Automatic annotation (TrEMBL):
Keyword DNA repair attached: no
All copies of domain Amino acid permease/ SLC12A, residue ranges: 30-431
UniProt source species: Alicyclobacillus hesperidum
Gene Ontology CC annotations of this record: membrane
Keywords: Amino-acid transport, Membrane, Transmembrane, Transmembrane helix, Transport
Cell compartment(s), UniProt: Membrane
GO BP terms in the entry: amino acid transport; transmembrane transport
Name of this chain's protein: L-asparagine transporter
Transmembrane regions listed in the UniProt entry: 27-45, 57-80, 107-131, 137-156, 168-191, 211-234, 246-270, 290-319, 340-362, 368-393, 405-429, 435-454
Membrane topology: Multi-pass membrane protein
């Protein structure tokens, strides 16, 4: 059913709740919001770790990451087209897997968003220290996070436009990097060609399958921002084009990641790639393109603001949904002002981000690895539940179509879920990633225990 004023009205199949949805986003904006919500400082800084772990095989790791992302987005698109809901992941899990699973899904996704905001803020601080070497990381990270939170306090009615502009900047930066390195390799310095598989090992898999599997935790982190795509998808003007947008987002992301890292590996031996500074800036410096390196550093800073803004937007939507179900403090769903900004949710998010950034003061040398590892383990959990939700939905809707991104059903979903379990297990082999895993176990335990106190009050969401 359509309306000229509010667009389609979705229905939660379990609770029968009517949800009014305003369709104001074009397909092009959705694609750019999807790309913009994923490419951030985490990729520009964090990609150094999987490169060192897997060597040139990291290209295969990103291809696998793209396939897993496609399956997950396909699950989201399938459910969103059937019954769109502002609560997205939490609502679907709640409807098909039960209240407890929906509760866990909502809170773990929210906490993942908080960790993403904090990790992007810390990464931004690392890049900013190129110009402000004397300022502590925690202080810069806090300043950047406060700026993004303050922007969100004025409302997000132009969220699609802002993300679209920032996405264009980030895509242009990666394309520019690929083109520049290509010109350098084939033009001024042709002797550097072939460095990707040269050296003592001369192997695409210098660290074997284990190195490839261990790298996947950080690779998945580079794709983890699909949450923004999922929560923004319900605002699409033409919902029937949702799958087209998902295909475009996954294709653009995977292609940019693989091509840019290939260009990087053709410039620097994988063993020399930095894990504490941006390997892309490092590559430009190695090619004696210092001005371009400084420009890219500035672009990465912009990229991090884009991802942080998207994560705050997405996190607050999920938190408000939890509040409507009485699975979060009542004040988080309250809105104020003409722009109906959820200031309660924003205040709650601010406290969460502050706690995470405080770790950069206590653990300055390891905080970034901890944040992205913890975020990635929670992402594994979230994606596994999304895929499980699709299987549960299909059992009740055997005749309804499934997104083209969720290819090879149901085998494709089962294989993807198995890969997630295997990758999470291999990540534990890497000592630096174990702390994030144990932190996730602790978070999950706290969330589960809290459910014992809120389950009696859980009810259908308010209209």
């Amino acid at each position: 059913m359509k309306s000229r004023t509010v667009g389609r009205i979705g229905r939660d199949q379990r609770v029968g709740t009517r949800v009014q949805i305003k369709h104001s986003m074009s397909l092009f904006e959705l694609i750019l919001v999807g790309v913009g919500g994923i490419i951030g400082a985490g990729y520009f800084l964090g990609s150094g770790q999987p490169i060192r772990m897997a060597g040139p095989a990291v290209l295969l790791a990103f291809a696998i990451g793209g396939a897993i992302t496609a399956q997950t987005v396909g699950a989201l698109n399938t459910l969103a087209l059937d019954h769109p809901s502002p609560g997205a992941f939490k609502t679907y899990a709640d409807a098909y897997l039960g209240k407890f699973t929906g509760y866990m899904q909502g809170w773990t996704y929210y906490i993942t968003s908080i960790l993403t905001i904090a990790s992007e803020a810390v990464a931004s601080a690392v890049f900013a220290r190129l110009w402000l070497p004397g300022v502590p990381v925690w202080m810069l990270a806090a300043a950047f996070a406060l700026i993004v939170l303050a922007i969100n306090a004025f409302g997000v009615q132009n969220f699609g436009l802002v993300e679209s502009v920032m996405s264009v900047v980030k895509i242009a930066a990666l394309v520019g990097f690929i083109v520049t390195i290509t010109i350098v390799l084939f033009g001024a310095h042709p002797a550097t060609m072939g460095r990707m598989i040269s050296g003592p090992s001369a192997s695409l898999f210098p660290n074997g399958f284990t190195g490839l599997a261990q790298s996947m935790l950080i690779v998945i982190f580079c794709f983890a921002g699909i949450g923004v795509f999922g929560t923004a998808a319900i605002e699409l003007k033409e919902p029937k084009h949702l799958d087209r947008g998902g295909i475009a987002v996954v294709t653009i992301l995977t292609g940019l990641y693989i091509l840019s890292i290939a260009a990087l590996l053709l410039t620097l031996p994988y063993r020399t790639v930095s894990t504490t500074a941006s390997p892309f800036v490092q590559a430009l410096m190695a090619a004696h393109l210092h001005t371009l390196a400084s420009i890219l550093n500035a672009v990465i800073l912009i990229a991090s603001f884009s991802v942080m803004a998207g994560s705050v937007f997405s996190a607050n939507q999920i938190l408000v949904s939890l509040g409507r179900y009485r699975e979060a403090p009542a004040f988080v769903k309250r809105t104020f002002g003409k722009r109906a900004v959820a200031y309660g949710a924003l205040a709650f998010t601010t406290v969460g981000v502050a706690i995470c950034i405080a770790l950069s003061y206590v653990l300055p040398s390891t905080v970034y690895t901890f944040l992205i590892s913890a975020s990635s383990f929670l992402t594994f959990f979230n994606w596994f539940i999304m895929l499980l939700t699709l299987l549960a939905w299909k059992r009740k809707n055997k005749d309804k179509p499934i997104s083209k991104l969720a290819f090879g059903q149901p085998v494709g979903t089962y294989v993807t879920m198995a890969l997630i379990v295997v990758m999470a297990g291999y990540a534990l082999v890497e000592k630096s990633q174990r702390l994030g895993f144990f932190a996730c176990l602790g978070i999950a335990a706290v969330i589960a225990i809290a459910y014992l106190f809120v389950r009696k009050h859980v009810h259908s969401p308010e209209a």
